[in-house]
Design a protein that fits this description.
By secondary structure, the protein is of the alpha/beta class. Helices cover 32% and strands 22% of the residues. The protein folds into two domains: 153 residues, FAD/NAD(P)-binding domain (3-Layer(bba) Sandwich); 177 residues, Polyamine Oxidase, Chain A, domain 2 (Alpha-Beta Complex), CATH 3.90.660. Helix 1 runs parallel beside helix 12.
């Protein structure tokens, strides 16, 4: 990697790839480096079984056709689950399973009301610029609280006492479409035309001179500007050295946006064990404190995704893949009965808390720190620029949010280069 470029893009996830494409469109020379052995970042698909795909990271195109990846999928000829997605949005398809028994009638309606009332309380807590932890504004003693608390933990990767009401309110968006053949595969296909140097993690970024110098195991990259699209977890880890160090206001932004952990387990079956009305979203909990989110057959396969988040996700991850598999199968059995156990073929489990290239699933603003997303997005002296889902207000935690942040940062860089010319 020799010769000075206009921009070095650090990270080849959705943000880095969209930035590289936009910079190329603008005629700006770019080098993209990636620490991992692949592109895509937190968009990554694996086969549970031949032809049955499981996304370890993002799996749904939020906001449907408004999502830029919807148009990208159409152009690439990659099918989306437009015909089946609404199974997860109809209120009647959100099932509540308590102690192995499905709630119906008044009990189901009470849980739905609890969700409505809780979201209203979270929104109200943001009035006049105020902020609080979600745990401070919802009724934690309600019998309907456990599934909602789990939904926050899986949605943010952080338990309710650590989630900012303001951050939660700004992130609203429709569930959108599933990608039956893998969202990660979609991102990889879209990004395949971007030249990326893999296994080239940024070890040190020297921005003491007129430009930037990035040291990697594969050599040194010199550029006029640098765009960092790594996760907030990587920025906080200290694995990338900066010379000089980052200013205090940037360090405070990073500290205010710690990574949450949502882990999911994909379980494949040798037959349809769910029945004709099994597809949908199940909130499963027991009075012993166990809870999970169970998404059934969302991609049209005989497969289930089981989610857990927050402290429990971190704890379970540390127990290892077998414990994660057993937890998932136990939760599915609570919904469909113990007979499903003999039909399990294979499991894939994630471990995002210990994932070395992200250190978590996505950034979650601490209570009172939602404003730090805007500070994380701010450039430093027109030389170090930042993108990624953590820099988004609206779209945070999503692949399309990361995409949009990359385009935004590329245009900011183009403007900065023009100012200095």
């Amino acid at each position: 990697m020799t010769g000075e470029r206009d921009v070095v893009v650090i990270g080849a996830g959705s943000a880095g790839l969209s930035a590289a494409k936009e910079l190329e469109r603008l005629g700006i020379s770019t080098t993209v480096i990636e620490g991992s052995h692949r592109i895509g970042g937190r968009a990554y698909s694996e086969e549970l079984l031949p032809g049955t795909w499981f996304d370890l990271g993002c799996a749904w195109l939020t906001d449907g056709d408004a999502n830029p990846f919807a148009g990208i999928a159409d152009r690439l000829g990659i099918a989306l689950g437009r015909a089946t997605w609404d199974a997860y949005n109809k209120p009647e398809n959100h099932r509540f399973i308590r102690n192995g028994k499905r709630l119906g009638g008044d009990d189901h309606a009470a849980c739905r009301r609890y969700y409505t009332d809780s979201y209203a309380a979270i929104t109200a807590a943001c009035g006049n610029g105020a902020d609080a932890a979600i745990s401070e504004v919802i009724d934690l003693e309600s019998p309907c609280a456990p599934p909602f608390i789990e939904s926050i933990a899986t949605g943010w990767g952080v338990d309710v006492d650590g989630v900012s009401c303001a951050d939660n309110v700004s992130s609203v968006g429709a569930l959108g479409y599933p990608v039956p053949r893998g969202y990660g595969n979609l991102v990889a296909a879209w990004g395949a035309d971007v030249p990326v140097t893999l296994n080239a993690r940024a070890e040190r970024i020297d921005w003491s001179g007129a430009g930037v110098v990035v040291e990697t195991p594969k050599g040194t990259v010199k550029a006029r500007r640098a765009l960092l699209t790594v996760s907030a977890g990587m920025l906080a880890s200290g694995e990338i050295a900066f010379g000089p160090g980052l200013p205090d206001w940037k360090l405070e932004a990073i500290a205010g946006l710690p990574m949450g952990t949502e882990n999911k387990m994909g379980i494949a079956f040798d037959k349809d064990v769910f029945g004709p009305d099994g597809r949908g979203y199940h909130s499963v909990w027991s009075d012993d404190g166990t809870s999970a989110k169970v998404d059934v057959n969302g991609m049209g396969f005989n497969a289930v995704s089981v989610f857990t988040g927050g402290r429990h996700a971190v704890w379970l991850e540390k127990q290892g893949p077998q414990a994660c598999r057993d937890f998932a199968v136990d939760r599915i059995a609570e919904v469909f009965g113990n007979g499903i156990r003999k039909h399990v073929l294979r499991a894939i489990t994630t471990a995002w808390n210990s994932e070395p290239w992200t250190r978590g699933s996505w950034a979650c603003a601490l209570p009172g720190q939602a404003h730090q997303r805007e500070h994380l997005a701010r450039a430093i002296e027109d030389r170090l620029f930042f993108a990624g889902e953590a820099t988004q207000v609206g779209g945070q935690g999503t692949c399309d949010g990361a995409y949009r942040s990359g385009v935004r940062a590329a245009r900011e860089i183009a403007a900065a280069l023009k100012r200095s010319s």
